[in-house]
Amino acid sequence: xxxxxxxxxxxxxxxxxxxxxxxxxxxxxxxxxxxxxxxxxxxxxxxxxxxxxxxxxxxxxxxxxxxxxxxxxxxxxxxxxxxxxxxxxxxxxxxxxxxxxxxxxxxxxxxxxxxxxxxxxxxxxxxxxxxxxxxxxxxxxxxxxxxxxxxxxxxxxxxxxxxxxxxxxxxxxxxxxxxxxxxxxxxxxx
Length: 190
Description:
Layout: E1 3-10, H1 15-28, E2 32-38, E3 47-55, E4 68-73, H2 76-82, E5 86-95, H3 102-105, H4 115-122, E6 124-128, H5 130-137, H6 143-155, H7 162-169, H8 175-187
Parallel strand pairs: 1-4, 4-5, 5-6
Antiparallel strand pairs: 1-3, 2-3
């Protein structure tokens, strides 16, 4: 059976690195894995999405609307934007974080104040304050690895040696920091 994971965020949040680490871990565990990513205007703070599909035999990297088993949103508005891709019984992990889009910054729109209740009413949702946890660990850039840890725990993929994968893929001076971030994320999901 193929599982579908959608990771979404805003440019610069590390969505692509988290997806890459996830893909490597799943491949090392013997799964057939397909990954696709859409950068869009990511360098300008635009939407970024990565689709990871894994199972015994995966034909396509594309996740269609209504078929994601789990959606990991690195920002709350992105969770709202990508909700149509989640299965009816799917799970949502949301970084409890806001990045104001251009219409909000220019005063033409307001950031919705009821996103949390809308998401919680729509599906099984875990809010993770990955951004604050990253600051506590000492580097805001590890927020993505915290969310990866939360995803791994939510999907029951703890048996994979994620620390070894992190060590093989990040710069040596950031390995221990990223391992701590990953472990923190695992603890943030019940």
